[in-house]
Amino acid sequence: MNADLGAFEQVFCAVPSTKWMMMAFIIVTNWAIFSILTAVVSDNMAMLTEAHERDLNEREAAERDERRAITMELMFKRFDKDGDGEIGLKEIRNMLSDPAEMAVICDMTGLEKDELHDTLELVAGEGKGKITHEGFRQLIQDGWNKVTGHSFLKNEARLNDILKVLARGTNRRMKRQNSV
């Protein structure tokens, strides 16, 4: 029993139906208390789960960044054939001609081969024909944010396609309205 109901004995004897009412009251209040308790526990579990997932994601991101930094260091050393701390145009062209190297760099940057080629040529052109170790690291870490001519043309072509679709839809609506 949840409580001592001895004080209600006289009421229960005088009006027997009050036993059923008291029983219903106790059941309903227990359900309410248990549902509130369950909601609080569930919310706390959800918050702890989110915090744990956030911590895991941060750790994974840090590990991924560390692996990426090591890979970048190894790649740069491999591309810098003469060991002067810079990748020259000749070394860039050698790198771009090797399909395995291109696949690794494309995978790291998320760029296609032609976009990668244009970007490397652009950066090398800005740096007097060479890319420094710091420049190479920034290119890969910053996600190749510089706009290349190829990526600009690609986006322009996509926008033109969208405009054509919109124009067709507008023309159809105009024809429907004119026919009505």
- Proportion of β residues? under 5%
Count of DSSP helices?
Answer: 7
Write down the overall mean pLDDT: 80
Biggest sheet features = 2 strands, antiparallel
**Widest beta sheet: strand line-up:** 1-2
Enumerate the spans where pLDDT stays under 50 for 5 or more consecutive residues: none
Number of strands: 2
Radius of gyration from the CA trace? 35 Å
List the secondary-structure elements in sequence, H or E: HHEHHHEHH
General form = elongated
Key structural traits:
180 residues, mainly alpha, two-stranded antiparallel ribbon, 2 strands, elongated, EF_Hand_1_Ca_BS, EF_hand_dom, EF-hand domain-containing protein
Please characterize this protein's 3D structure:
This protein has 180 residues and is mainly α. It has a domain of 28 residues. It is 79% helix and 3% strand. A two-stranded antiparallel sheet has the order 1-2. Helix 2 runs antiparallel to helix 6. The N and C termini lie far apart (77 Å). The model has no long low-confidence stretch (mean pLDDT 80). InterPro entries: EF-hand-dom_pair, EF_Hand_1_Ca_BS, EF_hand_dom. This is EF-hand domain-containing protein. Keywords: Calcium, Membrane, Transmembrane, Transmembrane helix. GO terms for molecular function: calcium ion binding.
